[in-house]
Amino acid sequence: MHVLARSNSARFPTLTLVVVLLATGWLAGCGTDAPRRPAPQVYAFVSNGGSHTVTVVDLATLETVATVPVDYGPSQIRAHPTRPEIYVVAAEADRVDVLDARTHQVVARIEVGERPYSLDFSPDGRRAYVANWDSNTVSVIDCARRQVVGTVRVGRRPAMARVTPDGALLVVSNRADSTISLVATESLKVVETLAVARHPEALAILPDGSKVFVAATGSAQVSVVDLQRRVLLTNLAVGEAPIDLVLKPDGGELFVANFDSHTITVINTWRNEVTETLPVGRNPVRLLVSADGEWLYSIHYGSSVVFVVEVATREVVANIRVGLQPGAGALTPDESLLLVVHAGSNDMAVIRPAARALSTLLPVGLRPQGVAVKVLPSESTGGSGGTSAGDVLDSQPDAK
């Protein structure tokens, strides 16, 4: 069309003008009353365990836009699945802080059990479940009311709480008991307690909710539990100190990060079999898989690198040097950025997976522990679940 306009410019001057205007975008939106829809805003929220703050980074500009004081000892941080809110587990304050993702202010401080360790949301976002390490309980939070509506006693030293995809069952790993508790979410009653391999922590539930895989850091094993029959199927030998689990999106394969063996174990989840062990860098601590299941990202605490593994071939196609003692990581929803926080150098790496390269290092607070990404519609597009200035609480944390 551009060639046609250029070669017939004398005969069709109007056509030439239209082509130019279309090319420059001048006519975009003409003939309609609605303005062009603004791009959504994407933020990273980093929990800083040493400075008791959350750093907020605008991922469009890669600039820090806020540093929010929160309660003492922020560790795990999660973006609410449906509301414009960020939940921060404050382990040293026995609270969960709720941040408004738009105003970057604390809007609620929720008292939970002693030394909360981890948090998970129900699939519909109505509830949050908090595993409390020192009180051997799970606190159940109503997210709309921002208050605890139930407390469930489980085993000793609950580490992780994870909800099945249908929301009907909560699985809790009890490290000191070497058990898992199965909790019916409707009644908030423990319906089964099952013995698993020693010192269970990380959990991975299949997309169909049929099985849970339990990483046992004390026995170099992964326990496989049938959630429908509520029985232990087997204990699979993996590497030393399995610390993290991640499933392919279809649930067919499970990848296990073995911190002390410096390896990744691959498990066929249909057959409950170990298929291979991949040598990687020192102390793999976190694993992420792309949405299409083609790429595995392995974050290495000991060697300060991120390995990019092609899942089909099991080949390491890139190793990207990052900051000191990397721990938590997150992909943006469009997977254009991979974010990794470093407890040793107090910064966050911004990696562009398409280029397989580090883009920049951004300073954050002291000893960052977690990172969450939240996409917000632009102000002019509206949206539900927002908070007003009157909902904002005093953001100075209390010492307990």
Question: What does the secondary structure layout of this molecule look like, with pairings?
Answer:
Elements: H1 2-7, H2 13-24, E1 41-48, E2 53-58, E3 63-69, E4 74-79, E5 85-90, E6 95-100, E7 105-111, E8 116-121, E9 127-132, E10 137-142, E11 147-153, E12 158-163, E13 169-174, E14 179-184, E15 189-195, E16 200-205, E17 211-216, E18 221-226, E19 231-237, E20 242-247, E21 253-258, E22 263-268, E23 273-279, E24 284-289, E25 295-300, E26 305-310, E27 315-321, E28 326-331, E29 338-342, E30 347-352, E31 357-363, E32 368-376
Task: Please explain how this structure is put together.
- It is a single chain.
- The chain has 400 residues and is mainly β.
- The protein is built from two helices and 32 strands.
- It has helices at residues 2-7, 13-24; strands at 41-48, 53-58, 63-69, 74-79, 85-90, 95-100, 105-111, 116-121, 127-132, 137-142, 147-153, 158-163, 169-174, 179-184, 189-195, 200-205, 211-216, 221-226, 231-237, 242-247, 253-258, 263-268, 273-279, 284-289, 295-300, 305-310, 315-321, 326-331, 338-342, 347-352, 357-363, 368-376.
- The strands form eight sheets. It has a four-stranded antiparallel sheet with strand order 3-2-1-32, with no helix packed on it. The protein has a four-stranded antiparallel sheet with strand order 4-5-6-7, with no helix packed on it.
- The chain is globular, with a radius of gyration of 24 Å.
- The model is unreliable at 1-32 and 380-400 (pLDDT under 50).
